[in-house]
Design brief:
With 365 residues, the protein is an alpha/beta fold. The strands form 2 sheets. Strands 3-2-1-4-5-6-7-8 form an 8-stranded mixed beta sheet, with helices on both faces. A hairpin with a 3-residue loop joins strand 11 and strand 12. The radius of gyration is 21 Å and the shape is globular. 45% of the residues are buried.
């Protein structure tokens, strides 16, 4: 076996792999949206499998509660205030130096997701909210690239590999031997997001680490099938598991597209990708926090200047990526994290109005 493939010897013995499939993986690029519990497990497995380039995008920083399930991080990352994407990049560099990792510390929104996806062969879902999933789904359908959905909360989770119908019908899966393997998209199955307050979150019900890991490993497995050219092995059903209830269900969703009139993959209406749907404030799973997206230009925030100002009002820690301040407002304590691009995470409330007020008071609009 060639030297550059030696580390993948056990994988190459599997049916459908061998040198040819392994080289396909090494020439592939995976875009991982979110680097929390799902994203770290997926990134870890894809890097170890030899996917040549990982683009990891995450807006967040690491805190102690993440270590229960987010496998690429440790206590030193917390002490160093390393953003998740950058911490993942550094860890993967020590796991597999053959893999190139692009770490992007940024919010994922309609204004930047297409740029993040340049060159990507697949999109892997490590997200924690429906809105951004609809955006990722729009991107996948518009560009004709696979999207591996995954979600987990409490003791349960779901995952599904989406091979989108394309406008011309000329994708590898639509012209595959044995017939068209295109699947319903995310909006075919979940046309509308659950109303606010009705969808369980990490804050309200907690999360079991092994449940997340199973879902993310299923996602990684589906990604490896697709990237290695084993399209006939892609699971056609939606996986639904609950480890506490000891239930595993494979939901048949293949007819979801023909049963409805999907605004995305049938009507080709990419309202999330075009910025016609979506918001600038997002509650963050597991943090009792709100992220505020900066609406101004991209000239960058002067971290040192803001840190010096806030240092007079409370404790502040700052580095090249962000600053974090612990502040009080009207008798309530908040943790305010501000990134260089002006984004902010206000921890201590799930109310967007309050979060905007805290940002306006201490940073300015």
């Amino acid at each position: 076996m060639p030297h550059d493939l030696a580390r993948y010897q056990r994988q190459s013995l599997l049916p459908g792999f061998g040198e040819s499939a392994q080289r396909k993986l090494m020439a592939s690029t995976a875009l991982i949206l979110g680097c929390g519990a799902l994203g770290t497990v997926s990134a870890n497995m894809l890097a170890r499998a030899g996917v040549g380039h990982l683009i990891i995008v995450d807006r967040d920083f690491i805190d102690l509660t993440n270590l229960q399930r987010q496998v690429l991080f440790d206590e030193q990352d917390i002490a160093d205030d390393i953003p998740k994407a950058e911490a993942a990049r550094r860890k993967i560099a020590r796991i597999n130096s053959q893999v190139r990792v692009t770490a992007i510390v940024d919010d994922i929104n309609h204004g930047n997701i297409e740029r993040f996806a340049d060159g990507a062969d697949i999109v892997v879902d490590g997200l924690d909210n429906f809105e951004t999933r609809y955006l990722a789904n729009d991107l996948a359908v518009a560009r004709g690239i696979p999207y591996i959905y995954g979600g987990a909360v409490g003791t349960a989770g779901m995952a599904y590999a989406i091979l989108p119908h394309t406008e011309k019908g000329d994708s590898a899966w639509e012209t595959a031997p044995g017939g068209n393997r295109a699947t319903p998209c995310f909006r075919c199955i979940f046309e509308h997001a659950p109303p606010p307050g009705e969808n369980p979150t990490c804050d309200t019900v907690g999360v079991l680490g092994p449940a997340v890991a199973i879902i993310a490993n299923f996602q990684a497995s589906e990604a490896l099938k697709i990237l290695s050219g084993n399209l006939d092995r892609v699971c056609p059903t939606l996986l639904n598991i609950d480890l506490w209830a000891n239930s595993i269900t494979q939901l048949k969703v293949a007819r979801a597209r023909e049963a409805g009139n999907c605004p995305c993959c049938k009507q080709r209406n990419f309202e999330f990708l075009q910025g016609k749907s979506g918001s600038s404030a997002v509650s963050l799973c597991g943090h009792d926090a709100v992220q505020l997206t900066h609406r101004q230009g991209n000239e960058g925030l002067n971290i040192d200047e803001v840190a010096a100002r806030l240092g007079k009002l409370g404790s502040v820690k700052a580095n090249e990526f962000m600053l974090r301040a612990r502040l009080s407002d009207n008798g309530k304590d908040y943790e305010l994290t501000v990134f260089r691009d002006g984004r902010a995470i206000v921890k201590g409330t799930d109310d967007a109005t309050i979060a905007r007020g805290v940002y306006a008071k201490f940073v300015g609009i």
